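User: Show me sequence and structure for the first protein, then do the same for the second.

Assistant: Starting with the first protein.
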Amino acid sequence: MLFGNDADAQKLLTALDRTNTLLARIDGLAAKADQQVFGADGLMPEARAAVEQLKAALLEARESLKKIDAILVDAQAIAGNARVASNDLSTLRSEIDASLRKVSSMIDEVNRRWPFAKPAEIKLP
């Protein structure tokens, strides 16, 4: 009655029916998409699981880096100790050389004073 004739009213009802059908299809597609994204076998649970695995891997990498950091600190300490030790070794070596020279000169002196020591002979051809 609003449009004045039955043909226009029928067109309006047909358009409304088609719109309702289209909306029902869209609702079905939305439900399907919702199930595929958020359902038990959907993307979101898989994405969440992947994020959790990535988080665990990052925590593991962080722990490994902490261990490597500690090893590097130890290596630096060892290198410093080796540097100091090499300086000490050169001082020790010079002290040992001086002591050996003293001992050698003492042995030479004892051999020279010993009553049965043979005189050093030099034979020339």
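Switching to the second protein now.
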Amino acid sequence: MPIGGERRAVNRAVLAEAPEAPGVYALYKGDALLAYGSAFGGTITIRSCLIERCSGAGREATHCAWEICIDPAGRERALMEELRGSCNEKSA
């Protein structure tokens, strides 16, 4: 199942509202998925990761979504497996 959070336009206000919590996030350019990422908590939060990614390599992102969860690494793996599965279905 894709990230359950609402897709939001990337801007300062949205990034400032992102949670200071562990979880996963997705970056999009329009409707195209650019990347999934995970934030493990402590100083590595969804907000800090989005701010870093959207000012660096992910600055081409136009939208983002996030989901707070207790097992970010496991949830990111599940998202990647789902993505690989959908790519395999399209190429079949």
